[in-house]
Design brief:
The complex is a heterodimer of chains A (about 400) and B (about 290). By secondary structure, chain A is an alpha/beta fold. In chain A, about 40% of the residues lie in helices and about 15% in strands. Chain A folds into two domains: about 220 residues, 3-Layer(aba) Sandwich (D-Maltodextrin-Binding Protein, domain 2), CATH 3.40.190.10; about 160 residues, Periplasmic binding protein-like II (D-Maltodextrin-Binding Protein, domain 2, 3-Layer(aba) Sandwich). Chain A has 19 helices and 13 strands. In chain A, strand 4 and strand 5 form a beta hairpin. In chain A, helix 9 packs across helix 10, helix 10 crosses helix 11 and helix 11 packs parallel to helix 19. Chain A is globular. By secondary structure, chain B is mainly alpha-helical. The interface between A and B is medium-sized, with 35 and 32 residues.
Chain lengths: ~400, ~290
C-alpha cells in the first residue's frame, strides 16, 4: 500500500484545489486532472488494497445494486472519490447534506429514510444505539479499517457496550471564522464573538442552525459548559441569543456562501470549512475560542434497515482506504483520525495549524455530550430562538 | 335505490371511489392523527408519547412572531403578486396577437420546469453581496443589504408564485367579450372607466382564484423564507419544519398545525364570503 503511494507524491493542497476546481468547471478533462494530480494511479492502489475491487467492473459485485444513499454534512466529501467508487462498482451515490445531527435523528426516528450510509458525530452514537437506529458493524467486511491506527480519543465513541457501531471519518474543532479585513478587533473568545456581533460587526454574523454549536457558543460566552443542560444556564444562553438575533446576518449551517460573498464577516465555523475559506481568501481567520468550544469526531455508520447493505459496506470499506481518506481530506480540509491517512497527507495539510492546532489551544474544548442530542430544553431553546 | 339502478350510477361510484379513498387516507385520517397528537406529550427523546394535555396549545404564544410574520407577509406577497401579475395577464390576454400569445404563455410556464429549490437558490446569489448590491456600488449606492430581509422573501414569493396568479387572471380576461369594450368606448367611456367598470369586474373571478391559490400556499411556505430570509424571516411553516425535523416535538408541531389550519379556514371562508357578496352586489348580467 504505502509502497505504491511513494510513486505518487501528493501535490500541494492549493495546487490540487486549483486543478480540482478547473476539473469541476470543465476547463480541463478528467484524464488531464487525474494525470496532473497523480490520482490516475488510484485504481492501481485500490486494487492493491482491496483485491476484490481489482476487476473493477460492476459484474464483480453481483449484489451491490446500482444505488447508495449517503447522508453527510455540507462540504464534507471529495466528489472524485464518490465518482470513482461509482465507476468501479456501478453503484450510483446519492448524497444528502444535513445541517445538524438533530435533523438526522429526526429523519431516522420518523423512519423510512432509505439511507445506506450516514455520518453521525461522536455524541449521537450512544443515542442511536439506545434507540435501535444503527446497525452493529461486521468489521470483517471493512478490512481497510485499522483500529490500531486510529486515535482512541476520537474513535472511542464508536464502541457502545463492547460492540462497534461505526468507523471513524474525521475529527475537528468548532470555533469561529473571522474576515479580518472587515473585523480588525481580533476577537478571541465567544464573549468577543457576541460582543462584536452586537457591536461593530452588527448585521454580519452567522450562527449555525444547530443546537449543539449555537447554544454551546452562547453558553461558553457566559462562562458555562458548552454541554450544559441546566435550565437556568440555558435560559441565560437563550436570552443572549435572542438579544443578538437582530444583529445576525443569518442562522444557517451552510455559512460558506455568506462568508464568501462578503455579506457575513464572522460565523461559527467547523475547522475544515475554516481551511477551505482560508485557502481561497487569506483574510479568513479561524479562531479556537479561549473560553471553550467543541472538539468532535465523525463516523461512517449504517442505519437500521439500510436498503443497500452490501453497497454500504463496500462504500465504507472504500472510504477507509488511507489513500482515499487522504484524498477526501485534501478537498474538505478536515483531519483524518487514521494515522495511515495522515502520513499520506501533503505537509501543507499535515502541519496546518487550523487542522492540527497546538494541544494547549484545545484544552478548553469539550466533546459534545450525548444528553444534548435529546435534551428537550435545548431543542426548544434553539427553536424559540429561530422563531423569535 | 331500486332494482333499476342505472349503469351510470355505478360509473359515478367508480369515478368517485379513488377520490374518496384519497381524501380519507391522505386528508381526513392525517388530520385526525394531527389533532390527536396535538393533545399529547413529547417523548423523552423526541416524537410523540400519548397523553391528554392542553400544554401544547398553551405554548403557542412562543411562536407568536412566526404567526405574525406569516399573517403579514402572506397577504402582502399575494397583493404584490397580483399587482405584478395583472398587467402581465392583461397584456397576454388582450394585447398580444394570437401568434405570440402561445409563445409568451409558454415563457411564463417555463420556470416551472425547474425545481423551485434551485430557482430560489439562484436568488441567494442575485440578492447576495456579490449580486445586485455590487452593481449598486458601481453607481455609488453603498451598503445595501438585500438578502435575508423581508424584502428578499417578498421578491422570492412574487417570482415563485407569479404563474399561479397570472393564469387564472389570464383565463378570465381571455373569456371577456371584446364587444363590451367596444360598446363602452362607443358610448363615450374613457379607457380608465372601461377598465374600472368592465374589465376589472369581469376579471374578478380570476383575481379571486389567483389570490386564493397564492395565499393558501403562502401560509404554509417555508422554503423561500428559509433561503432568502436566512432563518431571520421566519414563517410558521419554518417553525413547523423545526418542530418536526429538528426538535422532534411532534405534539407541539401538531398543535401549531391545527392552529394554522383553523386560521386558514377562518381567513379563507371570510375571504370567500366577501367575494360572493361582491359578486351578488353587481349587475348579474355582467357576471
Amino acid at each position: 500500500m504505502s509502497k505504491t503511494n511513494d510513486d505518487n507524491k501528493p501535490i500541494s493542497a492549493k495546487k490540487f484545489m486549483k486543478y480540482f476546481r478547473s476539473y469541476q468547471k470543465g476547463s480541463i478533462s478528467r484524464r488531464h486532472f487525474l494525470g496532473v494530480t497523480g490520482l490516475g494511479t488510484a485504481m492501481t492502489i485500490m486494487g492493491t488494497a482491496i483485491p476484490s475491487l481489482w476487476s473493477g467492473k460492476a459484474h464483480a459485485f453481483p449484489d451491490l445494486g446500482d444505488r447508495l444513499v449517503f447522508s453527510t454534512w455540507p462540504n464534507y466529501w471529495n466528489q472524485v472519490n464518490l465518482d470513482e467508487f461509482s465507476e468501479l462498482t456501478g453503484v450510483h451515490i446519492q448524497v444528502n447534506a444535513f445541517g445538524s445531527n438533530e435533523e438526522m435523528l429526526a429523519k431516522l426516528q420518523a423512519g423510512g429514510t432509505g439511507w445506506d450510509v450516514f455520518v453521525p458525530t461522536n455524541y449521537t452514537i450512544s443515542n442511536y444505539v439506545a434507540l435501535d437506529l444503527i446497525e452493529e458493524l461486521d468489521l470483517s467486511r471493512i478490512p481497510n479499517y485499522d483500529a490500531a491506527a486510529n486515535n482512541p480519543k476520537f474513535a472511542g465513541p464508536a464502541t457502545v457496550n463492547g460492540k462497534v457501531y461505526c468507523v471513524p471519518k474525521n475529527w475537528g474543532t468548532t470555533g469561529f471564522i473571522v474576515n479580518t479585513k472587515k473585523i480588525k478587533s481580533k476577537p478571541k473568545s465567544w464573549k468577543d464573538f457576541f460582543d462584536v456581533t452586537m457591536g461593530k460587526g452588527s448585521g454580519h454574523t452567522i450562527v449555525h442552525d444547530y443546537q449543539l454549536t449555537t447554544i454551546g457558543a452562547a453558553l461558553c460566552a457566559l462562562g458555562y459548559s458548552f454541554n450544559s443542560i441546566d435550565a437556568k444556564e440555558l435560559a441565560e444562553a437563550e436570552a443572549l441569543l435572542i438579544k443578538s438575533k437582530p444583529h445576525l446576518f443569518a442562522i444557517t449551517s451552510d455559512y460558506q456562501p455568506g462568508m464568501r460573498s462578503g455579506d457575513a464577516w464572522m460565523s461559527i465555523c467547523w475547522n475544515g470549512d475554516g481551511t477551505q475559506l482560508n485557502n481561497d481568501l487569506p483574510e479568513m481567520e479561524y479562531v479556537i475560542a479561549t473560553d471553550g468550544g467543541e472538539i468532535w469526531s465523525d463516523f461512517y455508520a449504517i442505519p437500521k434497515g439500510a436498503p443497500h447493505l452490501d453497497a454500504a459496506y463496500a462504500f465504507i470499506n472504500y472510504m477507509q482506504d488511507p489513500y482515499i481518506q487522504a484524498r477526501d481530506a485534501v478537498v474538505h480540509g478536515y483531519a483524518p483520525t487514521d494515522a495511515r491517512a495522515i502520513a499520506l497527507q501533503p505537509d501543507s495539510l499535515g502541519n496546518d495549524p487550523i487542522l492540527h492546532p497546538a494541544a494547549e489551544l484545545m484544552n478548553g474544548l469539550e466533546f459534545g455530550a450525548a444528553q444534548t442530542l435529546t435534551d428537550p430544553i435545548r431543542a426548544e431553546v434553539i427553536a424559540r430562538f429561530k422563531s423569535a | 335505490m331500486g332494482a333499476g339502478s342505472k349503469p351510470n350510477q355505478w360509473l359515478t361510484v367508480a369515478l368517485l371511489t379513488p377520490t374518496s379513498i384519497w381524501f380519507l387516507f391522505l386528508l381526513i385520517l392525517p388530520l385526525i392523527v394531527i389533532l390527536v397528537f396535538s393533545f399529547g406529550e413529547r417523548a423523552a427523546v423526541g416524537g410523540y408519547a400519548g397523553g391528554f394535555t392542553f400544554e401544547q396549545y398553551g405554548n403557542l404564544p412562543s411562536r407568536l412572531k412566526a404567526f405574525q410574520n406569516t399573517m403579514l407577509i402572506a397577504p402582502l406577497g399575494t397583493l404584490l403578486s397580483l399587482i405584478v401579475a395583472y398587467p402581465l395577464a392583461y397584456y397576454l390576454a388582450l394585447r398580444v396577437s394570437r401568434r405570440f400569445k402561445l409563445l409568451l404563455l409558454v415563457l411564463v410556464i417555463v420556470p416551472f420546469w425547474t425545481s423551485l429549490l434551485v430557482r430560489t437558490y439562484a436568488w441567494i446569489f442575485i440578492l447576495g453581496g456579490r449580486g445586485i448590491p455590487t452593481l449598486l456600488e458601481f453607481i455609488g449606492i453603498e451598503g445595501v443589504r438585500l438578502i435575508n430581509t423581508p424584502g428578499a422573501v417578498l421578491v422570492g414569493i412574487v417570482y415563485g408564485y407569479l404563474p399561479l396568479m397570472v393564469f387564472p387572471i389570464f383565463v378570465s380576461l381571455e373569456k371577456l367579450d371584446k364587444s363590451l369594450l367596444e360598446a363602452s368606448s362607443d358610448l363615450g367611456g374613457s379607457p380608465f372607466k372601461t377598465f374600472m367598470q368592465i374589465t376589472l369586474p369581469l376579471s374578478m373571478p380570476g383575481i379571486a382564484t389567483g389570490c386564493m391559490l397564492v395565499f393558501i400556499l403562502l401560509m404554509g411556505e417555508f422554503l423561500i423564507p428559509a433561503f432568502l430570509g436566512g432563518g431571520k424571516v421566519f414563517f410558521i411553516g419554518n417553525a413547523l419544519v423545526d418542530l418536526f425535523l429538528q426538535s422532534r416535538n411532534w405534539p407541539f408541531g401538531a398543535a401549531v398545525s391545527v392552529t394554522l389550519v383553523v386560521i386558514m379556514l377562518i381567513t379563507v371562508s371570510l375571504y370567500m364570503r366577501m367575494m360572493m357578496r361582491s359578486k351578488t352586489g353587481r349587475d348579474e348580467s355582467l357576471m
